Amino acid sequence: MTLPSFDATFQHLLNVRLVDSDVVLARTDLPASEFKLENVQKGNFAAALVVPIAGANITFPNGWIALDAKLRGKTYRFVTTHLETFSPVQAAQTSELLSGPLNTDLPVVLAGDLNSDAHAPSFANGPAYGILVSAGFLDVWGMLHPTDPGLTWPLFGEDPPLGPTSLVERIDLVLAKGSGIQPTEIVRTGTTIPFASDHVGLVADFTLLP
Q1: What pLDDT is attached to residue 68?
Q2: How many other C-beta atoms are found inside a 10 Å radius of the C-beta of residue 156?
Q3: What is the DSSP letter of 140?
Q4: Is it the case that residue 31 has pLDDT exceeding 70?
Q5: pLDDT value of residue 163
């Protein structure tokens, strides 16, 4: 998405571009008999934020990626997304996930910036967390660290970096559903200067059950 704007002096016209991408990285050093990716899907949500700018309605799209990972003969689904902040749109996008890529009998892991505060859940703070938990998804951080708020945002507001003491919300989440996987650990990363992002990273481990 590219829009016209001005520089800091308001004397020079320039283009401002917004790019919002979802990416899944997978290891490639295992033989296909042990690890194989199948049924890779992607899409943009039908629900999207629309903002009137300079007489035109500008749509801010959000999307998702889903894939099935076959590990030693058993298949699991992984889904990642970046949900809209504004609550009504976020609720609609979450419903699309539940009727789309999350609608599976496979054990499933959902990870991403859901823009829904699991530390202080409410519709105003982002309805996705409540909707997903009500649909049977397990909050991995909440399960394994019930007394630790696990805040993930914001590390800085823009410059200078403020550090972990500025964190106020837990909006970056790993959720799981299904009897075939058992969360065993989850840790936060990227909490020391120089920060790679204004969000804390998460790494989660699962035991894959027979």
Answers
A1: 97
A2: 14
A3: H
A4: yes
A5: 77
Q: Where are the domains positioned within the chain?
A: 22-208
Tell me what the pLDDT averaged over the chain comes to: 92
Distance, in Å, from the CA atom of 71 to the CA atom of 90, rounded to the nearest integer, reads 32
CATH fold of 22-208 reads Deoxyribonuclease I; Chain A (3.60.10)
Kindly report whether the global pTM for this prediction surpasses the value 0.85: yes
Q: DSSP per residue over 156-177, as a string?
A: BSSSSB--GGG--B--EEEEEE
How much is the pLDDT for 19?
A: 78
Which pair of tokens denotes residue 150? 């696990």
CB 81 within 8 A of CB 97: yes
Top pLDDT among 149 and 14 is at 149
- As a whole number of angstroms, the distance between CA 137 and CA 109 comes to 9
Across the chain, where does the E strand assignment appear? Answer: 2-6, 13-17, 35-44, 49-53, 56-60, 63-71, 74-82, 108-113, 138-139, 172-177, 181-189, 201-208
